[in-house]
Amino acid sequence: MINVIAAAEFGGEFEGVLEPINQLFNFPPIFELSLFGLDLSINRTILIAWLMMAIVAGVFLYGLRNPQIVPGKFQAFLEMIVDFNRQIALDIIGPKGLKFVPLLTTLFVGIFALNIAKITPLLMLPPTSRAAWPIFLAAIAWLVYVGVGIKEQGFLGYFGGIAFPSGVPKALYIILTPIEIVSTLILRPFTLFVRLFANMVAGHILVVITLVTIHVFLPSPAGWPIAAFAFIASPLVFGFELFIIGLQAYIFSMLTAVYISSSMEAH
Amino acid sequence: MLLATIILAVEEDPDSIALLPDAAELIWGFFAFGLLMLAIIKFVFPKLNQTLEDRSAAIQGKLEEADSKLADAEEAKRRYEESIADAQGDANRIVEEAKASADALRAEARERAEAEAQHIIERAQADVSAERDRALQELRTQVGAISVELASRIVERELDDATHAGLVDEYIQRLSNQN
Fold first, then answer.
1. pLDDT tens by residue, B10-60
2. Max CA distance (Å), chain B
3. If you compute the radius of gyration of chain B from its CA atoms, what whole number of angstroms results?
């Protein structure tokens, strides 16, 4: 039922419900705010993002405020999440990866929380379906792995290693150097951004269409079979989206570890 | 180039999904995520790592304790088995000693019995010998008297007792010497 309630904001008219498509994502400011000539108005996605970040921080601060040697269920659950990221760091980066566990954990739980707003009743909008969040997160990943590369191999060592991979005939550098520079320094963060962003946009549209279908076809008896189908499909869609939400959080965290790992050793 | 093209294409149509980040969302997101990361790095992980260290130390301690208890138990078992082996040895020794002392007693008893028997035999032999001597003495006396009587009948003359005794003794002496 809550799904139908969430769809109610579209008013039962299919005509123009999804048009323009940007209205599913772009919400008018709730609080107008302007600082230093910048428009810092608070809109719905910002509030959702704050709420989700606050919930994650609260859960971790509360759950691990006084960790016990013999953990309770809640503590064990949180430790399991951290351990999951520790395993990612250890498997991909190795023992040196342990210092990136807090970063990977924050990325994982942060992205998961932002994504899960997509299927959270009353929120029903993932902040990660707005370009700002995936770009920001990809920028963090980029800064970290480029920073690690410069720190581990030196400025020239790192960028030289990217531009001129060893073990390749010199003539091939004509082709390889531009490809390597573009792929390592531009395509990596860009794919991180697009993968998360596109998945969340598509997921949000899928959820909205499923719920709007129920709402739009319910009033007339001729539409009941379609409404019933959408109603039955909606939990499956939610389950599928939950899977995507977790998968994208995992992929982002894992790829960040992969990029950090590749920065630690020369090509 | 590709990115720029996409961005330009998107910018032309305000009704399609925005690919450019909204500045307000970017800045507020930066603060929100920054605070989350700060909370996790500054407050969650130090405690968690401390707990994990404490836990591994506790597990290590428990394992060592268990090891030492196992060693103690094995030592106790070894001592117990040793004491059982000792007791077995003692029992065997006692049985052996009992056997030996029984053998000794039996041998002693037999020896004593044999000695006793020997003694009895010797005494019997002595008795027999004394009896024979006495019988011989008697016989000698009787033989003397019979001889004298026989001789007196043969010679038909009386011999006085002294001569008589002298004759008999002489005769016996001769017999003894012949023997």
1. 555 666 777 788 888 888 889 999 999 999 999 999 998 899 899 999 999
2. 200
3. 66
Across the range A14-19, mean pLDDT stands at 60
β-bridge pairing A38-39 and A34-35: antiparallel
Given this model, what pLDDT does residue A227 score?
Answer: 87
User: Cα(B73)–Cα(B135) distance, rounded to whole angstroms?
Assistant: 90
The chain B residue lying nearest A45, using CA atoms, is: B25
What percentage of chain A exceeds 70 in pLDDT? 92
CA distance B25 to chain A (A): 6
Residue type, A11: G
Burial class (CB in 10 A: 0-12, 13-18, 19+), B72: exposed
Cα of A26 to nearest chain B Cα, Å: 8
d(CA A196, CA A251): 9
* A124: three-class secondary structure by DSSP: coil
Nearest partner of A89 among A162, A148, A166, A136, judged by Cα: A148
> A127–B19: do the CB atoms touch at under 8 Å?
no
Contact call for residues A85 and A97 (beta carbons, < 8 A): no
| Complex ipTM value | 0.84
B6: amino acid identity, one letter: I
- Mean model confidence pLDDT for chain A: 87
Q: Which residue has the higher pLDDT, A218 or A263?
A: A263
Is A109 within 8 Å of A248 (Cβ atoms)? no
Structure tokens at B57: 């130390």
- The more confident residue out of A31 and B92 is B92
What CA–CA distance (Å, rounded) separates A155 from A144? 14
